[in-house]
Amino acid sequence: MAATVRDVMTSNPICLEPGTTLMEAARTMAERDIGDVLVVDGADLVGIVTDRDIVVRAVAAGLDPRSTRLAEIVTRDPVTIEPDQPVTRAAELMRENATRRLPVVEGDRPAGIVSLGDLAKERDPGSVLADISSAPANN
Predict the structure, then answer these.
(1) Residues near 40 by Cβ (< 8 Å), separated by ≥ 6?
(2) How far is C-alpha 124 from the geometric centre of its chain's CA atoms?
(3) pLDDT, tens digit, for every residue of 115-134?
(4) Per-domain boundaries in the chain
């Protein structure tokens, strides 16, 4: 039986409210050693912000990370996947939408996140990407 997204996703993703500052989000990412946070309104997913988004959409544009809110740079309505979908579907969605991360949702509520690295570890454990994705952080 083919693996499902639930088998490879990171459960309990870090979720922040749209009013969170970029500084707070960046600190959270650094403390948790993650590259993204899901943005939620209450319990409903409204978007995703990556570490790259903070750099490219905010810092490089001269926005102040202490006062700029996630709502100002969030990727709204990201492509999502449900946990019981096959990993092959996740790979298709990433390819079709040129994305490296997919929020995993049950209804509108975040259940996890699956990354390109997660898929590499599942589909081709000997690949360079799988090796890099499995390696401990180099803080």
Answers:
(1) 15, 16, 17, 46, 110
(2) 21
(3) 988 887 665 545 333 333 44
(4) 5-134
Query: Which residues are CB-neighbours of 74 under 8 A, at least 6 positions away?
Result: 18, 39, 46, 47, 48, 49, 53
Report domain 5-134's class.
alpha beta
Residue 15: φ, ψ to 5°: -120, 135
Q: What is the pLDDT of residue 51?
A: 96
Q: How far apart are CA 118 and CA 125, in angstroms?
A: 10
- Which among 92, 103, 26, 104 is positioned nearest to 65, based on CA atoms? 26
H/E run at residue 75? strand 75-76
For residue range 42-61, what is the model confidence (pLDDT) as tens digits?
A: 999 999 999 999 999 999 99
Q: Residue 27 to residues 2, 54, 65, 139: CA-CA distances in angstroms?
A: 37, 12, 11, 14
Query: Is residue 99 within 8 Å of residue 16, measured between CB atoms?
Result: no
Label the pairing between strands 36-41 and 44-50: antiparallel
